Amino acid sequence: EVQLVESGGGLVKPGGSLRLSCAASGFTFSSYSMNWVRQAPGKGLEWVSSISSSSSYIYYADSVKGRFTISRDNAKNSLYLQMNSLRAEDTAVYYCARDQKDFDQHYFDYWGQGTLVTVSS
Amino acid sequence: SYELTQPPSVSVSPGQTARITCSGDALPKQYAYWYQQKPGQAPVLVIYKDSERPSGIPERFSGSSSGTTVTLTISGVQAEDEADYYCQSADSSGTPVFGGGTKLTVL
Predict the structure, then answer these.
(1) Is the dihedral of CA A107, B99, A6, B53 positive or negative?
(2) pLDDT (tens digit per residue) in A26-73
């Protein structure tokens, strides 16, 4: 059974930093690209970042480029999101999601339960 | 930036058919995907590649595409289908894009 378990969320002041983790199990983690998707309270879904299976290809949404860094450790079956210079608008539940691909198009076939990040003074 | 447009809400009675639309200029050239999200839970993929159903998803969920609009159809709606539904596709650079979501209410 595929499982994705996020951790590391919490309350942080504007300008602060936080590192999210996602522990994967039930599949060959090193064979899949992975993503972070977030959802602000009461709002819709927003793709944040993706990383290929060997970390060769990394992409970010414009809203987080230059502030967030995605990484992975295939030996530990883990995905990470380092978030710096946090803003109030980064407040959201952050989901880890496994990537699937149809030709050049990506979608998300498994999701974790999410971890809440609150940016507030 | 590329946008996918969904109606904010759809209401149906149990046993009826619910249709949720998603419009976007690039949809004739891109696949659409649909996710179901119940309160306090993570999204679940219910339709991929416009009309394919993942294993474990009930047959009452189906998808279709026509021009710039894709449609999620739920036949014989049940109370447990009450949820938010999001379409997803991609912009011209391949960046994943979500629709704003549709709240399905089962009356």
Answers:
(1) negative
(2) 999 999 999 999 999 999 999 999 999 999 999 999 999 999 999 999
Which chain A residue's Cα is nearest to B48?
A: A107
The amino acid sitting at A49 is: S
Residue A47 to residue B97, Cβ atoms within 8 A: yes
Question: Could you tell me which chain A residue has the CA closest to the CA of B40?
Answer: A113
**Both tokens assigned to B64:** 């279709």
DSSP designation for B14: T
Radius of gyration of chain A (CA): 14
Helix (H, G, I), strand (E, B) or coil at B50: coil
Please tell me the distance from the alpha carbon of residue B57 to that of residue A106, in angstroms, as a whole number. Answer: 20
Contact B32, A107 (CB under 8 A): no
Query: 61-90 in B: which are within 8 Å (CB) of A?
Result: 86, 88-90
- pLDDT tens digit string along A98-119? 999 888 889 999 999 999 999 9
- Partner-chain residue, chosen from B45, B95, B101, that has the shortest CB–CB distance to A109: B45
* DSSP character string of chain A: --EEEEE--EEE-TT--EEEEEEEESS-GGGS-EEEEEE-TTS-EEEEEEE-TTS--EEE-TTTTTTEEEEEEGGGTEEEEEE-S--GGG-EEEEEEEEEEETTEEEEEEE---EEEEE--
